[in-house]
Amino acid sequence: MGRTVNADGVELWVERRGQGPDVLLISGLGDPVEAWQSQLDGLADRYRLTAFDNRGAGRTPLPEEPLSVPRMADDAAALLRALQVPAAHVAGFSGGSFIAQELALRHPDVVRSLVLMSTVARPDAYFRAMTRFWRWMVERAPDERAMLEAFFLWIYTPRAHADGMVDQFVEETLAFEHPQSVEAFQRQLAAFADHDTLDRLGRITAPTLVLSGELDLATPPRLGRVVADSIPGAGFEVLPGEAHQPFQEVPDVFNARVDAFWREVEAGG
After folding, report:
1. Where do the domains of the chain lie?
2. How many CB atoms lie within 10 A of CB 45?
3. Is 56 left (phi over 0), alpha (psi -120 to 50) or beta?
4. Is the predicted pLDDT of residue 252 greater than 80, yes or no?
5. Residues 110, 74 contacting (CB under 8 angstroms)
6. Which helix (H) or strand (E) holds 43?
7. Which pTM value belongs to this model?
8. Considering Cα of 199, then 26, then 229, then 132, what sign does the dihedral take?
9. What is the three-class DSSP state of 113?
10. pLDDT at 111 over 80
11. Rg of the chain taking only CA atoms, in angstroms
C-alpha cells in the first residue's frame, strides 16, 4: 500500500516494496507509480524499491509554482532523505531519466548508481517538434481514449499494438482513479522539453547504464548514445526489437538486465 510522504514540504505519493539494497524508480511523463508494477513485483525479492508520483502525476498534486526538472530532482533527493535512505540505485525512464540525470548532478551523495532508460541529454529538433504536437494533441483529441491511442503510437512496439497489450494499457489508464489533467500533462511536458544536461554530464561519477529501445521513436538510440558517451565509464546497450517502454513490454528482460547491473555495482563496493 502506498502513502503520502512529506519531502521538504512537498506531499509525494510513495509506494515501497521489498527488502535489500535501496532502489529509487523515477517515472516519466504522466506516469504514476503503477507504471513500475512489474518492477515492484519482480524485483522485490532482492531490493527495497521506492516509486513515487512526480508533481502533477497520480496522487501528487500539481504545484502553483513553475515546474522544472531540477525542482523534481530536488523532490527525489528530499524523498530519499525523508525515508532515511542514505543512497540508492536510481532508475529513471524517459522524463524520469532526465530527473535522474539532474539528481546525480545536484545530489551525487544520494545516487549509488544510475540506470537511464529511453533518455536524452539535449532535445533535438525532432524531439522538440514531437513535444509541441503532443501539447496541442492532448487539448484537441476528441476524447481521452483517442488521445491515448494516438500518444501510444510513439510509446509501444508494433508488436504490442498487434497483440492487444496497448488496448489493455488504454483500458487501465482510462479506469485509473487519479487521471492526469491536461494542464499537468502540458506543464510536465514543457519541463521535460527544456531539459539540457549535455555540457554537465561529464561531472557524473556514479556507475551508469544507459538503455535504449531499437525501435524507440520518441528517444531513439542515437540520443541515448550521446548520454552514454558524455558520462565517464557509462555502459550503453540497445534492446533489440523494443521501443520506448521495454520495462512494461518485456519486464523480465528489463528486470534481469538492471538486476545484473546492480549486482555488479554492489560487488564492486
Report:
1. 3-267
2. 10
3. left
4. yes
5. no
6. none
7. 0.97
8. negative
9. strand
10. yes
11. 17
